Amino acid sequence: MCGIAGFYQTDFDYTKSEEFFTRLTNMKNSLLHRGPDNNDVFFSAHAGLAHARLSIIDLKGGRQPMKKTISVRTSVICYNGEIYNTSELKQYLQRYHVPWETTSDTEVILNGYLSEGLGFFQKLNGIFSFAIYDVKEDAMILVRDRLGVKPLFYCEEDHSLIFASEPKALFAYGIKPEADSDTWCEIFGTGPAHTPGKGVFKGINELLPGHFLVAKGKGTSFTCQTAPYWELTAKEHKDSLEETEEKVGFLVYDSVKRQMVSDIPICTFLSGGLDSSLVSAICAKELKKKGQQLHTYSFDFVDNDKNFRANSFQSSQDRPFAEKMVEHIGSSHTFLECNNQIQADYLYKAVDARDLPCMADVESSLLYFCSEVAKHHKVALTGECADEIFGGYPWFHREELFEKSCFPWSHDMEARTCLLRDDFLAETDVCQYAQNAYEVSVAKTPALAGEDKKEARRRQIAWLNIQWFMMTLLNRMDRTSMYSGLEARVPFADHRILEYVYNIPWHMKCKNGVTKSLLIATGEHLLPEEVLHRKKSPYPKTYDPAYEALLKSRMMEILHSPNEPIHTILDKEKIISFLNTPSDYGRPWYGQLMAGPQMVAYVLQINYWMKKYHIS
Known about the structure:
Blueprint: E1 2-8, H1 18-29, E2 38-43, E3 47-53, E4 66-70, E5 73-83, H2 86-93, H3 105-116, E6 126-134, E7 139-144, E8 153-156, E9 161-164, H4 167-173, H5 181-190, E10 205-206, E11 211-216, E12 223-228, H6 241-258, E13 266-269, H7 274-288, E14 295-301, H8 304-307, H9 319-329, E15 332-338, H10 340-354, H11 360-373, E16 379-381, H12 386-390, H13 399-402, H14 414-417, H15 422-427, H16 430-443, H17 453-482, E17 487-489, H18 495-501, H19 506-509, H20 517-522, H21 529-532, H22 545-559, H23 572-579, H24 596-612
Parallel strand pairs: 13-14, 13-16, 14-15, 16-17
Antiparallel strand pairs: 1-3, 1-9, 2-3, 4-5, 5-6, 6-7, 7-11, 8-9, 8-10, 11-12
Helix pairs in contact: 1-4, 2-3, 5-16, 6-18, 10-11, 10-24, 11-17, 22-24
């Protein structure tokens, strides 16, 4: 994994101005956390490309930006990601007799583009965002993976294109971070999720998953045109239950096995839940064939064994199940714990990593855990995305959530607006914005004619999860891991799995009323019974009242400081009333984890974000 950045235009010669080389260098330096191993730039008359590399495959070769010429065509690439069908693609490209100089997947993409053009992107299986400067065409092409695992932001300014893995690199170029009405609606109406394609900051876009962008032209004829190279489609599912379980099992095992490719040791995140346990069991089995032992990590909070409160979303603690899995697969395991002070302090580092207010302590704690893992490993496989794809969340089946005509993970808008000033609410209709975003998304659901009402609704729920909720978690995983130079892979986010499972009817996904029964079938010969049939429990959170007290203390400091920027948005009396109300951990305002304490943490993040980026 890496960080990429760059710019492009054809109106003048960049090389005649030191300023633009300095800007390119600044962009690269702002992303060094994503690629601490080495870095470089490509700088020409009409294009600049910057790359910060985390070396995983072909450690000695594969340096970027990479430039190649085949016949009369020359192109330069900077790339972030991993291609999991590299060996098959290399064999496929032999028909073109292309020369090979490295064993890197970067060269596979470049040779593929030089041989087949834009059509080659459809053949890639992996997680990626990359930019290719086509010298002959004098054009810049941006590409992002099908599910949006790897980020890519861009903006247009004065007939030019500026792009980067993270917004901070756009700001390093000279783009000014600004907020408009949509920004505030994104933060308070849909946040910490954001509308597909929006970068939240004014004028900043995010390339949609499964899309490419082609920029070319001069002056007023300059254009940035985007188009999909892949789209999810609805199809009739014709396989029997037995065939379905067999194919899901193959796809999951194959995806995990492919994503183990690395020239350095890998590890896994192991919570003791079905998803991470399945990934870990497959990795351990494959490594044992080579005489190697898997290293696993699990995360928890200091004194959580004393403070844990079971509720409808989180019914059990992870540690006993993680211990069972460690014994079962024979992994070398590390239990990591986070304390209150670290979790609270990392709220601000999480904003630094994301460039935006994010999932509060659900994100700050993961950022800390990733920083600890990164001290020993550079590559980790995780169980993310299984719930979104296989229907593990309560809103897939709980009637009161399933039927709501809104984002089911954010149905309580009162919890989002209860702290806002009345004049701010009058100017910024965050509730209507969120409702409009929901309706626009639902209307785009890939649907199948003739399905009954309930099955059609389940497609809508699945689509919303893929477009919104899953993207939030993928963004969290990318920024928290890459901030410390750790590559986190997500085997369940394989487009082949998504394409197949999206079209499986619910009675097969939830056989005999058991959610994620297809994954249970996959794990029958891989996992112990206790883990296989464990009730879903999301990412761990602290229930320590001292943590909540710490957040409230920091919030009161802000209330008593008249110069804090958040005062222009929040109502002081409403906040005091909120802080004096007992927290309901079983009533989250986003997802399954973000309840009262997380709202306080989110506000702390927003205030810090406003100060850091001078947002008014």
